[in-house]
Design goal:
The structure holds two protein chains of two kinds.
Chain A: E1 13-18, E2 21-26, E3 32-34, H1 37-45, H2 52-60, H3 67-83
Antiparallel strand pairs in A: 1-2, 2-3
Helix pairs in contact in A: 2-3
Chain B: E1 2-7, E2 10-16, H1 19-28, E3 44-48, E4 53-56, E5 62-64, H2 67-85, E6 89-98, E7 101-106, H3 113-122, E8 126-129, E9 132-135, E10 142-143, E11 149-151, H4 153-159, E12 165-167, E13 170-173, E14 189-196, E15 205-208, H5 211-220, H6 229-241, E16 244-249, H7 253-265
Helix pairs in contact in B: 1-2, 3-4, 3-7, 5-6
Classes of the chains: A alpha+beta, B alpha+beta.
Chain lengths: 91, 267
């Protein structure tokens, strides 16, 4: 997953932000997904051009965290968002 | 005699053959009674018979062998019709106010919401609803739905055995039975309190939670959230944006109400 370009969030979602945490409504299902701080930070960087490695680089410049652990967290978030069908298919 | 009521923006009529049922409904629904209004054909609730009784509402007819059972069935029919037809964004929660501050308690059935609400009313809060945070989908204005509360025997004891009307396994009480008034113009939501039930003997305490968690709690219990979900999500988030969001470890409900009262009075 590390160097592969990731799909952006689906375009039919409604997203609200409260205190930095995002809640995402999946259009057809009516299900609201509440994202934690890490998932919210990753979500904001998912623009359809970045890979997981590039997202990790962006986050490393903001947070004091060990690279290997952050990569694991980011990959877990991407996997979770993909399972929830909140992202467009990877380009 | 026909009783016409407004329940969450839905005009309903109730007609009972038995004058004793009419008297009981008139008493417990007085805060919802409008006396006038055009009633759509599918919004009539009829209670036939003089014992046994049959409640004919929007759902399957319900038979009742006792007055308390007939009263509870009629009130359930009212609530089902309100939830089914309301034009409002309705989220399952209790709503009370004090000094212009509105407090919302989202909770699943059995979490202690009604008992806590009754204790708050006994302690001087004003009543908005024990059922729904109901918002006008256009303006976001909070709409009162002061339906009567159904209190179990245990709840009645916790509240000091208020006067009320016997229902099936419950005592049906109005705001005035609890010495409270209805707030017909509740202000913006200032507190959202998520309940965590603990042993009755434990001391109540509150901790701050993320607004996003409170949002999830409210939407999980959205009666009408899915009717137009995207604007409803944005509206609910706006409600929370200026609210304090807390988790209350409930413990003894009377003490928990005192705890919330002190917290809100302290500003």
């Amino acid at each position: 997953m590390g160097g592969t370009r990731l799909g952006p969030p689906r375009t039919d979602l409604t997203v609200v932000e409260l205190d930095g945490h995002l809640s995402v409504l999946a259009g057809a299902s009516g299900v609201v997904h509440t994202l934690n701080a890490t998932a919210s930070a990753v979500w904001r960087l998912l623009d359809g051009t970045r890979s997981a490695d590039e997202i990790v680089e962006q986050l490393l410049s903001r947070y004091d965290v060990e690279r290997g652990r952050l990569l694991e967290d980011v990959e877990r978030v991407i996997s979770d968002l993909t399972d929830r069908q909140l992202l467009e298919p990877r380009a | 005699m026909t009783l016409v009521i407004d329940a969450m923006g839905v005009t309903l009529s109730l007609q009972a053959e038995d004058p004793a049922i009419t008297a009981a409904l008139t008493r417990v629904l007085r805060d919802l009674t409008t006396g006038t209004g055009t009633v759509a054909p599918d919004r009539h609730i009829a209670i036939s018979g003089r014992g046994p009784w049959q409640v004919l509402g929007p759902e399957t007819p319900q038979g009742a062998d006792s007055m308390p059972q007939a009263l509870s069935a009629a009130l359930t029919a009212v609530n089902l019709a309100a939830v089914r037809h309301t034009p409002l964004l309705a989220l399952h929660a209790a709503v009370v106010t004090r000094g212009g501050r509105t407090l919302v308690v989202p909770a699943r059935s059995g979490a202690g919401k009604s008992t806590l609400t009754a204790c708050l009313l006994r302690q001087g809060w004003a009543y908005v609803s024990d059922e729904a945070l109901a918002l006008d989908r256009t303006s976001g204005r909070l709409v009162s739905y002061p339906r009567p509360l159904g209190l179990s025997e245990w709840s009645c004891r916790a509240v000091g055995d208020p006067a009320g009307t016997p229902g099936e396994g419950e005592t049906v009480v109005t705001a005035s039975d609890l010495g409270a008034v209805v707030d017909w113009s509740p202000g913006a939501v200032r507190y959202v309190v998520v309940l965590e039930r603990t042993g009755d003997g434990s001391r109540p305490s509150t901790t701050r939670i993320e607004r996003s968690e409170a949002l999830g709690e409210l939407l999980q219990r959205g009666f009408t959230f899915h009717h137009d979900a995207a604007p409803a999500l944005r509206m609910t988030a706006e409600v929370l944006r200026s609210a304090h969001t807390l988790r209350l470890r409930l413990g003894d409900p009377w003490s928990a109400a005192e705890h919330l009262t002190a917290l809100v009075d302290a500003g």
